[in-house]
Amino acid sequence: MKKSLLFLIFISQIGLSQKLKIDTKTTYQTIHSFGASDCWSMQMIGENYPIEKREKIASLLFSKQLDKAGNPKGIGLSMWRFNIGAGSTEQGIESKITNEWRRAECFLENEKYNWNKQRGQQWFLEAAKRNDVDFTLGFLNSAPVSMTKNGLAIGSGKLGEWNFDKNKIDDFTSFLTKVSAKLKFDYISPFNEPQWDWGPKSKSGFGSQEGTPINNDDLAWAVRKLDAKMTDRKLNTKVVITEAAQIDYMYKSKTNRSEAKQDNQIEDFFSKSSKNYVGNLNSAEKIICGHSYFTTSPSNELISKRQDLLAKVQQQKINYWQSEYCILGDNAGEIKGGGQDLGMKTALYVAKVIHADLTYANASAWHWWLSVSANDYKDGLIYISNNGVKGENDSNKFDGEVYDSKLLWAFGNFSRFVRPQMQRIKIETDNKDLMISAYKSSKQIVVVIVNSAQNQRIDLPNLTRNQVIDTYTTSKDKNLAHSKIKGTSIEIPAEAVVTLVTGLR
After folding, report:
1. Burial, 163: exposed, middle or buried (Cβ in 10 Å; 0-12, 13-18, 19+)?
2. N or C terminus of the chain with fewer C-beta within 10 Å?
3. Is the pTM of this model over 0.90?
4. Do 338 and 444 belong together in one domain?
5. What's the confidence (pLDDT) of residue 505?
6. Residue 448 belongs to a domain with what CATH number?
7. What pLDDT sits at residue 201?
8. Is residue 139 assigned to a domain?
């Protein structure tokens, strides 16, 4: 029997020594991926921006290479999410979506497929594949406009009312399988945030983006139809559901979406006694996907909601993916979504959310929302602006400066080193200022430390025979900066995220 490895790390604080225990035998979830999406700017950037700027963005997002000093050139995403458009771009202003950036082209138009559509997004999809990103996923906000009830990619505004002509389900499943096969997606996510109404946002009748609600009954029906089509065509792409708008809707019943039959989704879709059970389908992964929006503050709710989610996930023996997040709202006064921030405040807040999703909800995947944003908002890993002009407008449509953020690199403290198939392992500390998680592969142990407080000194025992540990630090003046520890001590800077990487004995 292979012996468990038990490591002790001592944390010194003003003369006080505390023990940090890592037990490699006690394991939790297996990591699937860290990812981000191509909405909405990548269509503009991929089609219009100079090649050197496109390559710079691709390197920041996808590269796993190191520079001569050992610093990562990028954050090495392991999942790339591609928005499959519904055709609002071709409709122009008649789409009832005011903002051109929030519209999307469709591969199917006038009953013919045109694979030259979404060229800008396809450029980045190919860049992801060139950089050996492990997984790709296609997701929809709406069915193609030729298949919707109202001929638009926005809903009616009524909760639970699926904007889809059910007589066209065969056309819809054919569309999904053909796009998945052509673009070679590993996963397809047919429905996004079904709990929102996705209808007009004013009396003008205009909406903000493509989208449609759908209730649990219709969603299960459509997934069964899609599974039959994918099985018939022997497609390897797997279906994932449900991209819940908030994690509450996955595990809670009797919510404000109960009447519309849009909550309690874990039990509804994965309990064998449920009429909507889809856990036995060939193409459907035993995964529930949800978004961490509006559930991250205050800290007691950040933890308790994820503990409740985990209980339901474990009950049905499925995996959980946190499949979309950025900072929205005012978060109980802790941080506001408005206002671009390239610094550590946003980076540390998001790192706390990632840590909570991984350690309290056992998320096996964690995906950010906008990989690149033009907005004056906390929604991007990378930002673009033209001569300081922010926003989804003509100024930024054809060219602009490219700015990385501390959030990008702090996300990289996880995504670059916590790789697919690693297992989260047990780690304990009495130090309440540090958020620490640990992961192992057959050859490595990775420890990610989030420190929102003052400097902390950690004394390390001999983890390996030669005691060489690689560290990567993101702080106010460092971006995944590499160093090596050959002794038994490291100082964690104030307000920093630090990753330790070491070999197993």
Report:
1. buried
2. N
3. yes
4. no
5. 59
6. 2.60.40.1180
7. 85
8. yes
pLDDT at residue 266 in the model: 98
- CB proximity list for 364: less than 8 A, separation 6 or greater: 29, 30, 31, 32, 319, 320, 321
Give the pLDDT confidence score for residue 17 in this predicted structure. 41
Instruction: Tell me which amino acid residue 302 is.
Output: L
Residues of the chain whose pLDDT is less than 50? 1-3, 10-17
Predicted pLDDT of residue 428? 86
Distance CA 456, CA 350 (A): 21
For residue 99, with 0-12 CB atoms within 10 Å meaning exposed, 13-18 middle and 19 or more buried, which class applies?
middle
pLDDT in the model for residue 219: 98
Q: Which range marks the domain in which residue 359 is found?
A: 32-420
Q: How many domains does the chain have?
A: 2
On whether both 70 and 148 belong to a single domain, the answer is yes
d(CA 127, CA 63): 10
Residues facing 319 on adjacent strands:
287
- Residue 487's CB is within 10 A of a number of other CB atoms, namely 11
Question: Do residue 166 and residue 152 come from a single domain?
Answer: yes
Whose structure tokens read 């050139």? 73
CB atoms within 10 A of CB 135: 18
pLDDT at residue 5, as a whole number: 52
Please state the length of the chain.
505
Instruction: Give the integer Cα–Cα distance in Å for 470 and 383.
Output: 29
**For residue 424, what is the enclosing H or E element?**
strand 423-429
**What's the DSSP call for residue 207?**
B
Pair 265, 360 in one domain: yes
Q: Does one domain contain both 353 and 468?
A: no
DSSP labels, 331-368: GGGT--SBS---SHHHHHHHHHHHHHHHHTS--SEEEE
N-term to C-term CA, the chain: 16
In 49-168, which ranges are continuous DSSP H helix?
51-62, 88-91, 119-130
Domain containing residue 237: CATH number? 3.20.20.80
Q: In the prediction, which pLDDT does 462 show?
A: 59
